[in-house]
Design a protein that fits this description.
This protein is of the alpha+beta class. The chain is built from 5 helices and 9 strands. A hairpin with a 3-residue loop joins strand 3 and strand 4. The termini are far apart.
Length: 202
């Protein structure tokens, strides 16, 4: 929460802030990458008073942690997220909305708006959206990461010459037949030829 009382409600009034806040829970992309709960989030903001509320513009910086989607190694990444949001005064409707607006339209508009309550504005949902958009959907430890072997799971960056002799599944049954034929030929060579014995006896 940030206090806007010192800013006042005179349009044009400006206040710059630099703050460090603790990251809330689930501050990122679930199961992929995010800022750990309690980690510092550095904020540089400008609060500007306008007719219908306070316009907040700033940048959030933090360090996100996750794992590489290719090799599953830990990943740490610095994140800088820009944000801008209007926080409306509770009585902004009296001045900032058309009197002819339908109640249903008002309800829909309220879902997309942020309000100042008792002179305080809650930046958490704004920061959460900004940070999530700044995070990579598929983080990698480095762009050239080769990942893991799909057959045995070994890390390919540490074993660049690693490979498996692949057998085309379409030829697998024929390969088995070939081995059977080879085994039969070997048995015939090892066994005595009855015709040859009879010739020797004569």
């Amino acid at each position: 929460m940030f206090d806007t009382h010192e800013l006042g409600r005179r349009p044009g009034a400006l206040k710059r802030l630099t703050r460090s806040a603790a990251a809330p829970k689930d501050f990122g992309i679930d199961g992929v990458i995010g800022v750990p709960e309690g980690a510092p989030v550095e904020l540089r903001m400008r609060l500007e008073s306008v007719m219908e509320g306070v316009l907040v513009t700033g940048t959030a910086r933090a360090t996100a942690e996750g794992e590489c989607v290719r090799c599953l190694e830990p990943v740490r990444q610095d994140v800088a997220a820009d944000f801008q949001e209007m926080f409306s005064y509770p009585d902004a409707d009296d001045r900032g909305r058309s009197k002819q607006a339908e109640p249903a339209d008002d309800a829909e508009d309220d879902e997309d708006r942020f309000f100042i309550e008792d002179g305080l504005l809650d930046l958490e949902p704004v920061l959460r959206d900004a940070v999530v958009l700044a995070l990579p959907m598929q983080p990698v430890c480095r762009e050239t990461c080769a990942g893991l072997c799909s057959e045995c799971g070994i890390r390919l960056d540490e074993n660049p010459d690693h490979h498996h002799d692949a057998v085309d599944i379409r030829w697998a049954s024929l390969q088995g037949l070939a081995e059977t034929i080879k085994d039969g030929e070997k048995d015939n060579m090892d066994g005595a030829d009855p015709g040859a014995d009879e010739k020797q006896e004569k």
